[in-house]
Structure formats: C-alpha cells, structure tokens
C-alpha cells in the first residue's frame, strides 16, 4: 500500500463559505497562493453555487482570475448545476466538484432538491466535462449522520457514492458534514463503500464538531484510503447543516500523517504559517492545535 496521502485543501471553499463576515477577494487570492506554495497538490479554490445561497463566495470568478496556478497543482471548484459549470469554465476552471447527500432531508435544505433531482441537475455537468476534458470530483454529504433525519442508513451512502462513480466522478469524497462519526463507524462506512467503488477512487471529508475528525482520518487511512480533505486553520462548515463546525485542520492532519510515516509532500511549517495568517484575517486564533503548538514552540 502506498505511503503517500493526498490532501485536498478545502479551506478556500468549505472554510470561507461558512464565515459570518465577508473576506476580501484579495485575501482569498492570497490564501490560495500561499497554500499553493506549501506543496499541496489539490486546492478547492472557490464555489460557483448560487450567490443568493452562499453570498460569501459570490466573487468566485474574481478569485479564479487572481490566483497564480502552479503546475502540478489542481484547483477544483464546487458547482451544483450546469449554470455553475458554465460560470466555472468561463473563469478558467479545469476541474469541478459536484455534490449531493445520502440524506434526503439534508439535500433538500442544501440544494432545494431531492437526491435524484440534484443528480439530474449535475448529470449534464458530467457529460460536458467529459467532452471538455475536465475532471469531476463528487461529494456525498451526511455519510455518518444528518441534522434533520438523524441516522443515515449505510446502504444509502453506498448507493449514492456508487452512482457518482458510475456517472464519471474520478473520485468520490465521503463527507461527515456535521462531524458526529467516530473511528469505527468511519472505517465501517468506508469499507462498505469500498466494496462497490474502488478504494483508489475514494476520499474522506471530516468535520470536527465532536472532536473526532483526526481519529476518523487515522482509522480510514489504516483501512486503506489515500485521499483526505481538510481545511487550513480548521475553518469550515456548511451553512445549511445545523450545528456543523470546522473541517479537520490541514495542519493537524499533516502532523499526524507524517508521524505515522506517511508522506504528504506538504511543508508543515509553511502550512501552519498560512493557517495563522488566515486566522488573523478572520480575527481569531487558528483552529489548528498543531498551528498553535508550533507558534508556542
Ligand atoms: P434554487 O433556488 O432551487 O435554483 O437553488 P433555481 O435553479 O431555481 O435558481 C434560482 C436562482 O439562482 C436563479 O436566479 C438562478 O439563475 C440562480 P434568479 O432567476 O432568481 O435571479 N442560480 C445560480 N446563479 C449562479 N450560479 C449558479 C446558479 N444556479 C442557480 N450555479 C441551487 C438551487 C442548487 C442553485 C442552490 O440551492 C445552491 O446554490 N445551493 C448551494 C448550497 C451550498 O453551496 N452549500 C454548501 C456546499 S455543500 C457542503 O458544504 C458539503 C461538502 O463540504 C461535503 C460535506 O461536508 O459533507 C461539499
Ligand atoms: Mg464540508
């Protein structure tokens, strides 16, 4: 098994979509550029959802126009539908991410559609992306619990993940949107999906609401996954998921993985500096324990 884990940095998208205050476009651009210099290979740069639904990321096109793209780094952007795909392409995106959920109740709150309807909306995105040579990542939310529905049957997670993979998503990210899962549940969920979708096409995406996120990633890496999403400074959350809090902090993940003897290609100090820089812009301390420990050392 490979001893490399690819981290998908989602701070500029998942992190900033949930900030109560507007972050200046220039700061968003600087954030992506700083992250690009840390050795990250994938940085989700912004989101082309409806600006009425997520006003925090209404400047997505300006962000894409301002960032410096490094060779070897992918800059996926979130899109919910064909309109989002067209905006993303006009802004120069060459990788996109589509999203749905394993819970009907959550998906309706987040996209005003059933799971089937949301997939119908982005099916044309996958078709056009194939023609355009654009890579598509897929997200399944609420894989370990839903704030509206409660428990989410494993069979629903497996079915939706498999559909996204069958539709042509090169990678399916399994999201514990509200951060309620614990390591054994996380591992069992991953292994159930991996029985239908190749492990090499799976990623995990943990929020840290109940303090389980780092442990959950460890359990999933031990079970074989080699891609994990995280957000610098532990920012993030979905505005349409009641009680959701930050993503697992990228700094904490990198420290843990390096400690496990797993390479990420990322320079921890540079990442932690970026996390503290971002936290200062947001007017608070970094949400990364490793970022704080490094500053105090
Ligand atoms: P709707 O209101 O049902 O859509 O929203 P509509 O098609 O009826 O359109 C309504 C208006 O929005 C129209 O404008 C459209 O043009 C416009 P109007 O005629 O009223 O002036 N519109 C758009 N504008 C710009 N870009 C677009 C776009 N689409 C429509 N792409 C919709 C449906 C899906 C658009 C909406 O519900 C939406 O944008 N939802 C996104 C919510 C969101 O971003 N949530 C957070 C991301 S998901 C997440 O965080 C979870 C994740 O991190 C994984 C995890 O943690 O589990 C990925
Ligand atoms: Mg998320």
Automatic annotation (TrEMBL):
PROSITE patterns: PYR_CT (PS50991). Pfam families: HMGL-like. SUPFAM superfamilies: Aldolase (SSF51569). Residues 5-272 form the Pyruvate carboxyltransferase domain. Its EC number is 4.1.3.4. Keywords: Lyase, Metal-binding. Transmembrane segments: none annotated. Pathway: Metabolic intermediate metabolism; (S)-3-hydroxy-3-methylglutaryl-CoA degradation; acetoacetate from (S)-3-hydroxy-3-methylglutaryl-CoA: step 1/1. InterPro entries: Aldolase_TIM (IPR013785), HMGL (IPR043594), PYR_CT (IPR000891). It comes from Pseudoxanthomonas suwonensis. Belongs to the HMG-CoA lyase family. This is hydroxymethylglutaryl-CoA lyase.
